[in-house]
Amino acid sequence: MTNANPVTIETIIQRLRDFASERDWDQFHSPKNLAMALTVEAAELQEIFQWLTPEEAAHLDPAQHQHAAEEIADVLLYLLRLSDKLGIDVLDAAVSKMAKNALKYPVEMAKGSHKKALGAE
């Protein structure tokens, strides 16, 4: 199914700006506050999986799945709002970080291992 008006990151960021502005929330959206809110939402996502076995976590029931979708959306929205406030292009940052990770964890050293390279952060 094709969407005549596909949603882009830029569209979402603008909608977040408008949403905050309409409610006079910019005064509360400091990078510090947004980073804190982001971690709260990430913790709410984590809570869904807290006592599940790996098998249960891989096969959420419909209510858990919907809850996870909503928490993932909250994390993304706060992340985009924070990146906008800091003037960080999230796609550029992600591509740059992936390239850095490829150098930091070369296939021949990292393949099949969950251990990080010595001195890696």
TrEMBL record:
Domain of life, source organism: Bacteria
Instruction: Print the organism lineage.
Output: Bacteria, Pseudomonadati, Pseudomonadota, Betaproteobacteria, Neisseriales
Any idea what this protein is called?
Nucleotide pyrophosphohydrolase
Pfam short name (any one): MazG-like
* InterPro entries linked to this entry: dCTP_Pyrophosphatase, DCTPP
